[in-house]
Amino acid sequence: EHGLDSNGVYNGTSELQLERMSVYFNEASGNKYVPRAVLVDLEPGTMDAVRAGPFGQLFRPDNFVFGQSGAG
């Protein structure tokens, strides 16, 4: 959707898309982008699922906030 591959490198073709990249992503070293996000959940398993997904490695580990047990 934003033209990023799973390593955070921009591979898109839209100049407008690249101009607006800073709305949702911060540029890191090596022309890579990381999501501007804080992920919060009561269950650590949900965060594990995000990390295990195809774009999970893009998220900074310190942006995950979770409880030690679920709500139920």
TrEMBL record:
The gene is TUB. The keyword Cytoplasm applies. Its main location: cytoplasm. It is found in: Cytoplasm, Cytoskeleton. Belongs to the tubulin family. PANTHER family: OS01G0282866 PROTEIN. GO terms for cellular component: microtubule. The keyword GTP-binding applies. It comes from the Eukaryota. GO terms for biological process: microtubule-based process. This is Beta-tubulin. It comes from Metarhizium robertsii. GO terms for molecular function: GTP binding; GTPase activity; structural constituent of cytoskeleton. Keywords: Cytoplasm, Cytoskeleton, GTP-binding, Microtubule, Nucleotide-binding. Gene3D superfamilies: Tubulin/FtsZ, GTPase domain (3.40.50.1440).
